[in-house]
Amino acid sequence: MSKIVLYPANGYDFDAADVAAYLAGLTSGVFSGDEDFPVTAAGGLKVTVGAGRGWVHPSRFTGYSITKREADTLTMPLADPSLPRIDRIVMRYDAGARAASLQVLQGTASSTPTAPAISRTELIYDLCLAEITRPAAAASITTGQITDTRLDEALCGIVRDGVTGIPTDELLAAAKERIGGLEEKATSSAAAAKDSEDAAALSETHAAASEKNAKTSETAAKRILTDTQNAVKTVTANMNAAAGSASTATTKAGEASTSAGAAATSRQAAEKAQKAAEDAAALAGTRAGTDKTLNTENAPADAAAVGKAFASIIKAYDISLATASWKATSDTAAKNAGWAYQCDATVSGCTAALEPSATVSLESVVVAQKAGLGSICSTDAGFCRFYAEKVPTADISLRLLLTNKNPV
After folding, report:
1. Are 287 and 217 in contact (CB under 8 A)?
2. Is 206 part of a structural domain of the chain?
3. Which residue, of 96, 121, 221, 390, has the fewest CB within 10 Å?
4. CA–CA distance, 195 with 58 (Å, rounded to integer)
5. Partner residues linked to 91 by β-bridges
6. What's 88's domain CATH number?
7. How is residue 128 annotated by DSSP?
């Protein structure tokens, strides 16, 4: 008959296997997701693994307690110079060594990296504590690159008895869904406000274009020239008049008055400003026609007309950053900022002299946040470049504005 162990009982000698069988009633994991073995950035390539208690259940009849009373600091291997990768920090039970230890599992560098596999056998059993995203050529590890995996039952989990279970996967999914809902509500108002601002800017551009087309006579050109000369000669009065009369659509008129004020404090700057205004008036006169029968002297100043003549040109585009268009970036500054990927979006008429401003559409906010879409973008001939920590799981739709600064 096979051996039947009754534990504990007086008068019997028990070995480690008997005790391990007694402890086999608990599942693998940590006792507390807040206190046990937290992984944090410690500067440079170092991370700290806090003290804690854990449990491994490598087979049906074995269970082992793991206790680490003090924090330990680990030095991570260098990042790959050209491709990103994902590393893991694990607490490993080694039956052969009869010991438990912290281990760094280094992933494989790739344009689409995946985390290295953990071991789950009777002889080697891992509790994955954290995953660390390693951007190409990154010289340090930041908090944002560390993903806590202790609540993931497939990788670690919370210790529980083998009869009643705590559905941590369901609880974690519910928490993430709630957080995502709050983030969506928090960003929807800002996105709506930005869309309204874009619409207003586009309306302003159309209004300026319509007004320019309406100036079909030499009288209109004469008014622009007169107003500009008066603004240079009497800067203070014209600034006050512009502030009181300019509407929302001509807000940038204030910028023209301010530029004129700065020109008035410097003779050389004033002469340049007046010359630029005269050139603009001459161009307007050319486009207005050659009718010499109209001649209105001392026309009243029109601050709104002056402002619109110098208003910024705004170009708006609705573009999509396709998932397949992302690739590993070679931009050192972007890598140091944690952005391992770049996407060049084709934009007709785009040049390096234009200033970009982008707003993610509401339906793409969650995808952009998960990918770590960069807070900056840049322009060049024919395209606009965007950055991200990871390759997005879906296309990202956004509104792109390109602007020229007012002439000085």
Report:
1. no
2. no
3. 96
4. 56
5. 102, 127
6. 2.60.40
7. E
Q: Decide if 169 contacts 157 (C-beta within 8 A).
A: no
Residues 6+ apart with CB under 8 A from 208: 308, 311
CA distances from 67 to 1, 56, 120, 127, 134 (A): 37, 11, 19, 13, 29
What's at 27, amino acid-wise? T
DSSP summary character for residue 35 = T
Low-confidence ranges of the chain (pLDDT < 50): 232, 235-236, 238-240, 242-243, 245-266, 269-270, 273, 276-277, 280-311, 408
What whole-number distance in Å separates Cα of residue 152 and Cα of residue 172? Answer: 8
**Boundaries of domain holding 38:** 16-157
6 belongs to a structural domain = no
What token pair was written down for 167? 């559905």
CA distances, 163 to each of 56, 166, 194, 288 (Å): 16, 10, 53, 88
Q: How many residues does the chain have?
A: 408
Assess contact for 132 and 89: CB atoms under 8 A.
yes
Per the structure, the count of domains in the chain is 3
Report the C-alpha gap between 251 and 96 in whole angstroms: 76
Do 50 and 136 fall into the same domain?
A: yes
Residue 195 falls inside a structural domain = no
Using alpha carbons, select from 364, 361, 365, 319 the residue that is nearest to residue 343: 319
Q: How does pLDDT run across 255-286, given as a tens digit for each residue?
A: 444 444 443 444 554 455 455 445 544 444 44
Tokens standing for 215?
A: 């100036």
